[in-house]
Amino acid sequence: MVTSCKRELLSPVPETFVADATAFDTPGRIANQINSLYQGFKSGSLYGGRAQIAGDIRAEDFINETTNGVTGYDVWLLNATGTSANFIKNLWGQAYFVINLCNLFIDGMTAKGTTVVGTALSNNYLGEARFLRAASYLKLLEHYARPYADGNGSKPGVPLRLTGIKESGFSALARSTVAEVYTQIISDLDFAEANLPLTYTSAALNTTRAHRNTAIALKTRVFLSMQDYTRVIAEANKIVAQNTAPFSATSGVAHALQANIVNVFRTPYTTTESIFSMPMTSTAGDNPGTQNQLGFYWSKTTGGGEFSLNPSGIIANAGWTVTDARRSFNATVSGKPYLNTKFNAPSPYTDWAPVIRYSEVLLNLAEALARTNAGVNARALALLNAVRQRSDPATILAPLTQADLIAAILLERRIEFLGEGLRNFDLMRLLQTIPAKGSVLAKPASETGYIWPISSDELSLNPLMTDN
What is the rounded average pLDDT of the residues 289-312? Predict the structure, then answer.
């Protein structure tokens, strides 16, 4: 009776709750918020699994085995809708959830956090937030907007939200152009490069938190998607200094190819080739969750075998030799080929999810050099062969023309990143037709369905939003 007259005791604040007003009061609380940004980014709906999976099942190298709409059957069919597609709604929602977390963090640091941790550490943290925001926007552009090459970025992009939303009623925002979103992505990554640390104190942190080379590596992907090959070369040269193999980064984290490709995908997952990966553990809530995991989708032995390998796809290409170590990831199970062991940890699927690897930077640079130099560029060819001979040392690729060199690089990308989500990215950026697969017809760049529709959740909440 006596204590009930104290209003604060009628609604006590839980000890684990941090109010918005005090979230930036201590260095510990600020550090915890940085961790929460990564936790959102590694959600199974985003880069914990589905971002990579979506990048492969839209293309031609996998065959759906389960007709399960939850695990992307409609995405594979290239007829997904914004109202019913689990992939489309969840990836959109999680990407914007991460973007909003980043925006709230940036707002909070500006208002209070910088004075708590100091300018240098604040800029480190802000670099991480802006890196994750940029990566999220890049994935949104890949699936929900026309490629940059279609109209030089003039087509509708996605809503460019740069201020944190704390309550309902603030969702109305029209779509920016593709070019405008790319401009923001580049600005975020430039800031990240300038302010992120060169290295962290452990290989695990160097793999799971953004550092300077992480931002540079992602910029090579961004400029490749814009077909701005001169800038791909400029960025890649910062972390690929050599003209001949072995290639490596000579500042910051010492990135380099691993001698054995299998090691990249096995514990402890922290090789210098793994520029950025999403870590997973068996702790509840710290792995992708049901029907989001790379191993669940690709493996028939330890997973659900949702998608087998297309017998007419990349595994049938004569350019991928039978002695190539990357073929060891494939296996025939129950009469069908699967990408069976690239991600082979059993349930709860604790394989780390790769976001970007050093081999991608090498092939990004190789392609940019090949496209901007007549004939067979020697450095581009050396970069290509470095990736090929790591897994297939007996093969020396020797294309005779510039066109042959470019084709060989694109083929190498299909082999090297099978199951890692880059195939759709490559088709989109080049406005190439999505090839036929199984019963699914080819999808030219001019057809409806070449990109995804907008999530119906966004359309219902944002009165200024328009559908594709």
Answer: 97
